[in-house]
Amino acid sequence: MGLIKLLLNLIVLVVLILIAFYFLPDHIKLNQIEKLAKFVPESIQEKAEDFLLTPAERREKLIRDLEEKLAILKTAVNPEAAELIPLMEEALVKLKEENDELSFAEIAKEKLIEQFLKKGETATTTAQ
User: Fold this and answer.
1) Of 19, 63, 76, 104, which sees the most CB atoms within 10 A?
2) Is the whole model's pTM more than 0.90, yes or no?
3) pLDDT confidence of residue 106
């Protein structure tokens, strides 16, 4: 009975840590994932990133990976690659702009929070 209780407490603790980690600011979360990547096999790392990162953070990570690969490509001497570099840079700029734009769900969430806060303010002013 004690072992089962200990196991359940451990599971609850891990879930709480994962939830707290999910809501960390993007830059902190990505830095911590990069530090942990040194100790975790790549297959487990990919599954963890899919679970822990929000869609915007996954896109941001993909953008960073593309920028790194583009920097490597710029050092290549191949003339065909040199022709593709401006097109790739333009695509990356568009991708960044689209990633920074708010999605419909994010806009709706902000509007709901704004309305909820307004109702909360009117409730406190009428209660006084």
Assistant:
1) 63
2) no
3) 67
